[in-house]
Amino acid sequence: MTTLASTAPVARRRFGFDLSKPVLLAFALILCGLIVMPLSWLVYYAFTDKSGAFTVGNFYRLVSDAAYFDPLLTTFALATLSALICCAVAAPMGWLVARTDMPLRRTVRILVTASFVTPPFLGAIAWELLAAPNSGLLNQLYREITGAPPDSHLLNIYSFAGLVFVISCYTFPYVFVLVANALDRTPGDLEDASAILGGSTWDTARRITIPLALPAVLAGALVAFLQAMTLFGSPAILAMPAGFHTITTKIWSLFQFPPKPELAAAASLPLLVLTVMLLRAEQMVLGRRGYSVVGGKNSEPRIVRLGGWRWVMLAAALAVLMCPVFLPYFALLNASFSKIASHLVSPGNFTVQNLHFVFFELSATPLALRNTFILGIMAATCGTILALVISYVTTRKAVSGYRALGFLATAPAAIPGIVLGVGLFFTYTRPPFVLYGTLWILLIAFVTLAMPAAYQQMQSAFRSVHPELEDASRILGATRLRALWQITAPLLRTSVIATWCFIFVGVIRELSAAIMLFTSETKVLSVLIYDLNESGDLAAISVLGLLMLVITFSVVALANSLRGRNARRNVAIG
Amino acid sequence: MQSAADPPKKIALGERAVQADGVEYIIFAEKESGQPVEPVYATEGTPLIVGPNGVFKAAPNPNAARLFQSFCFRPECQQLCINIGGLRSAHPQAKEKPGRTPLSQIKLMKDDPAAVLKQGEELKAHYVKLFHV
Lengths: 574, 133
Fold this sequence. Notes:
With 574 residues, chain A is mainly α. Helices cover 72% and strands 1% of the residues of chain A. Chain B contains five helices and two strands, in the order H-H-E-H-H-E-H.
């Protein structure tokens, strides 16, 4: 898992007290607390009955009662289908933007990023506006065009197929990013060799390009499966009105009155075990990719000329992007300014009442906005600092046992948001840490969930800074912390800011853990949107959703502009 | 599972033509703002949901709470609840809003807390069997 940029031994100071050891130990303890505590309570509750005695009865109830077992099967089918659809759509798209001369490739990438950062629950609500059987805009259009009777519909989003579709819309970017990046990095030499030896374009694709990209596609499929399996928002919004549960909505409903925490814990454990197994599988698949990057000097990837097909392919890519981006954004914008969310805005129908309602009448808005910003800023700051220190330790092998620290930092990737929510609920509703009802418990959840990605980003940043620079500083007498501060920190500044933005955006869109941990005073924007959906306030949701998107895109744009500036500066130095 | 405020909003959207349970006050608001909806009261009876109101034992400002309560139960406030909130009032001085079926003409169903306590879980399980959620 951890490959090191350098094997140069880390210089050790003989004299003077080095603060780094206790600091590092403290960070290790924090990580342990974040991850081990909630999971231990989860396991404890799953295996005990109400009196605290050991039992496997909770699991027996889960598999013997159809009300609990059916959601398991549904979730499995849902995740499998979503993963297949994601691969079928995202892999060709990844190839198009990485390896062909299709026009507007950069724009397509940006639009995929847009669907990446769109909260899935917001997409699900937007699709309610588009494809609810009777009031959905697309169904209205269908009846308008075909003259079909008023009770007929083309699409029904409140169905298993509808849920698979919406989940795929916001999961395919995971596969796309993996495939496009893999193809970006794969050298063109091998394809050139195939072409020189007389292979046709198709032969080359079949025998060289596709096998090279296959591990990325497989890994993408696993990630997509995982996402679809652990998502809470979309199934809660679409599956429950359709009359079925997934495992996440079932866990949530077990916490509704009267709560059955022991069953919720038992239902969470299979999700946790499956996630761990899938992540192991992904590592094995990606680990084999080593053979794809052979050769010291990599040539530029070979671009396939599509000829007349260029525009057809662009049209296809844009058609795919209609589903996660253009149509839903249009529906949200329309509902924000329409007197009735399901009617198209017209001069007689235009209103700013929805904006007025959300910003001046709805008492929960200022509170949720404040909580979201406080949590976003704090989680991003704490998370970045944690990730920074831990990735320093692991890339520089600064203390013995650094591997364990790296493992702990990536472990939350295996904890679905809702499972972490349940675990944190158990941990912090009892002494000595009664944090339930405060923002702290949400902060802990968000930092934990953001840790794996933040850690990986910071780790790759550290690898790009050669330890020689730090060594030089330390040879000249600086302590480790001083070397970090004076040498490494300035070099890492942009990566730090990028990671900060990444966590911030993640916090804004988080619902699965927040839904288990919020109280009336600690409501965040995502929970407020979910609440409003329960009472059917689609117009208010649209306004809040657009606000959420504006905040998200501003932060993403900020991170991108900084990264761009940094890239240019590095080129200048090189 | 969903809020009782959801069904009338689904009607307003045009997603559904009828609602079987869901709050009355939003239907009043829709109807009185000119939307084509009409409440119908079942001959079997209509459930009455009581909105309780109390002061916490450890309330930080008990006098303010009492003041608020006394305001709540004045005829003026009860009339506001009826006229603007679309709610019903048991206050003898409060008057029904013209155009709405008076509460006295609606057959009401009574809650049975003891039965709920005894059969609650069973009823919920039955509901799950029927509606799957």
